[in-house]
């Protein structure tokens, strides 16, 4: 068995991955709050942004954490198409869950359906990303820990969607985002604890790209997207703020007449 190291750069990758998960959750929750206060095309656009933020945040969290993953006795590479597919799956399945909550008439039913769908999507993204792993050896999983990681993903997703439905204040959203970031990180590292590798030393060249060749630039790009989108959402007025501004202007307009 090869020795697995989940933090080859020390605390840097676990902390940074937690930060990315929390930012994605915060942005997704704020967009969901905005969506529930909007109608028509505006609601759809906010929900699309929420799905892309949460999905991108989860994906970035996973692969930033994987930058610190190493196995003694073998180098590691990643299958590029599978890695990209894991990102698409993350955003698409989270989108199904977010839209179920955003348009569901029965909120309890929508929350259960959305949480289950989104949680399974998060788990699918994680294990699809792991399937993209290329190394000299065989990767095995502990079924009990895999099941636990999936359960954590479903509970975390349901809690995040519940927060989107019930928490409105920015401070409460910030706290919920930190909790969600911790839950997503817990899911990831629980899933990684399920992994064992039987190394088969070889001089053959592994197919795929190294983490620094592909994962790192993509993670930096997606991280930049999260920061820029967060700034846009923070600076754009809410429906309530627009209505308050319009109400404040009416007396001035009346007086001018």
UniProtKB/TrEMBL annotation:
<feature type="transmembrane region" description="Helical">
    <location>
        <begin position="82"/>
        <end position="103"/>
    </location>
</feature>
<protein>
    <recommendedName>
        <fullName>MHYT domain-containing protein</fullName>
    </recommendedName>
</protein>
<feature type="transmembrane region" description="Helical">
    <location>
        <begin position="144"/>
        <end position="165"/>
    </location>
</feature>
<dbReference type="GO" id="GO:0016020">
    <property type="term" value="C:membrane"/>
</dbReference>
<dbReference type="Pfam" id="PF03707">
    <property type="entry name" value="MHYT"/>
</dbReference>
<feature type="transmembrane region" description="Helical">
    <location>
        <begin position="214"/>
        <end position="235"/>
    </location>
</feature>
<feature type="transmembrane region" description="Helical">
    <location>
        <begin position="110"/>
        <end position="132"/>
    </location>
</feature>
<feature type="transmembrane region" description="Helical">
    <location>
        <begin position="172"/>
        <end position="194"/>
    </location>
</feature>
<feature type="transmembrane region" description="Helical">
    <location>
        <begin position="15"/>
        <end position="33"/>
    </location>
</feature>
<keyword id="KW-0812">Transmembrane</keyword>
<feature type="transmembrane region" description="Helical">
    <location>
        <begin position="45"/>
        <end position="70"/>
    </location>
</feature>
<dbReference type="InterPro" id="IPR005330">
    <property type="entry name" value="MHYT_dom"/>
</dbReference>
<feature type="domain" description="MHYT">
    <location>
        <begin position="9"/>
        <end position="198"/>
    </location>
</feature>
<keyword id="KW-1133">Transmembrane helix</keyword>
<keyword id="KW-0472">Membrane</keyword>
